[in-house]
Each structure stands twice: as C-alpha cells, then as structure tokens.
Amino acid sequence: MSTMTLENREKLEAQSLQARRKKRWNNFLHMVGNHSLLIALSAIFIMPLYLVIVLSLMSKGQAETRSLWPHPFVWSNYVTVFTAVPFLKWTLNTLFVALMGTIGTVVSSVPPAYVLSRLQWKGRQTTFIILLSTMMLPGQVTMIPVYIIFSRLHWIPSFLPLIVPSFFSSAFSVFLLRQFFTSIPDEISDAARIDGCSEFKLMMKIIVPLAKPAIMAIALFAFLGSWNDFFGPLLYIVENEDLWTLGIGLNAFQGIHHVDKNMMMTASALFMAPVIIIFFFSQKVFIEGVTLTGVKG
C-alpha cells in the first residue's frame, strides 16, 4: 500500500509540475499577445543599434556583404579608431564641454525656477510667460548677433561660446524645475520660514533635495544636448583642431573613411556608448523627474 501511495504522490507531483509549466507558457503567450505591438516597435528601434554594433566588429570586406553576424569578430577596429585619429582628445573635449554645460544649466536654472514658483511677487506670471516665449525664438535668428558678440570678445576659437551661455539659464530647464517646485506643498516652506530659515537656505536645504529627480532630468537633458551638439562646435571651434569635439571629429573621420563602413560604425558606437550607459543607470530618476514636472502648474 505504501508503494501505491508513493506512486500516486509522484504522479500527482508530475501532473502539478506539468500544470505549472503549462500555466507559465500560457501566461507568456498571453503577455506576448498583449505586447506584440510594443515588441515589434522595440525591434524596429533596436535594429539600427544592432547593425551599428555588428558592423563595427566586421572586417572591411565582410561589412560590404549582407551578413548580419561578424565572422570573425574584429575587435581591433576599436584600437584602430584611437590610433588613426585623436579620438581620445575629441572625447575629452566633448566631455569637458558637456560637464561644464550641465553644471552651468543646473546652477543657473534652480534660482529662477524657485523665484517663479515659491515666491509671491507682482508680475511673476508675466515674467514666466515672457521666459516661455523665448523658447519660440529659433536659434537661427540669434545666431549671427551672438557670433558677432563672441567674436568681439575674442572668444573664437575657444570653448567659452559653448560653455558660458549655459550659465545664463535655459528657459526649458527653468520651466521643468518650476513645474516640479510648484508640486511641493507650501506648508513645508511656511514651517521653515517660521523657524527663521532664509530664502536661500530654504531653497538649498529643503527645496533642492526634494527636487532631485527634476534636477537630474534637466542635467541629463543638458548633458545629452552638449554631447550631441554639432552646429555649435562647427561654428565656434572648427578653426582649431586641438579643440575639436566628437561631432566635428566624426564628420572629419567620415571624410577619411567614408568607404570603410566598419570603421565608421566603430566610431559611431564609441560616440553612442557613454550616452547609452548614462541613460541606462539614470533612467529611473530621469523618467520620474520628467513625469512629476507636470503634476501641478
């Protein structure tokens, strides 16, 4: 009888395992069916990135074929990029401009956003509307006057035209921060003022720590804008090759290796890598900051 009981137990366990596997498979199929459109769109967006990485690991001859997988993997392409051109110098120049631009945008955007959201004063809404209206002014309209100003200051060629404007605030960044600041309860500020906290200390010690997601969002926007900028460096520093950023450098690299698809894709992969890594590690804070900026306003 014990043998029959043991056999029945094993049979029940096998049936239970089979039922769980079937349930997991059905759940998977159900998930695929519900997200089939998203999966298809994701594949479409991932395909260009996949091709860039795959082509960067191919030889010149294989890159001319329709092969979708490198055989063999030519890792030396990445070494060649650094030895053929001053790629490291371009990267360091771009990193310097991007970091300084990010710092300038954050430092110069927090105080205006605080004043426009947390303080009550006559003309606040009018000032905010005027600030937003500057976002509608195309850069092409101010390009020549700004270039003349920088030229008369003898800042061309140098990094100053790319960095200094970021320390004079950004309307878009002020808008995002202002929207987030207005979502913070006024009771927090009132309690701090009753305790004798100054407005500057209130901004730095209370509001800014609470607004870290929004600040991270505008910092990421600023960094990506500076990193991907091509027109600014082309306008202000193209005359001095020692100041070239990755945007100008890749354009020159394309002129040299325009027939070498594998080398072009290798340089492009190196250009994209820092941005992808930064966004991968900060996407949670970034999405939270962008989402919460529309809570109130």
UniProtKB/TrEMBL annotation:
A GO CC annotation given for this chain: plasma membrane
Membrane topology category: Multi-pass membrane protein
PROSITE patterns according to UniProt: ABC_TM1
Keyword match Transmembrane helix: yes
Compartment(s) where it occurs, according to its Swiss-Prot or TrEMBL record: Cell membrane
Gene3D superfamilies, sorted: MetI-like
One of the Pfam families matching this protein, by short name: BPD_transp_1
One biological process term in Gene Ontology: transmembrane transport
Residue span, ABC transmembrane type-1 domain: 91-282
Keyword annotations of the record: Cell membrane, Membrane, Transmembrane, Transmembrane helix, Transport
Transmembrane segments: 37-57, 94-116, 128-150, 162-181, 202-224, 263-281
Protein name: Unannotated protein
Organism field: freshwater metagenome
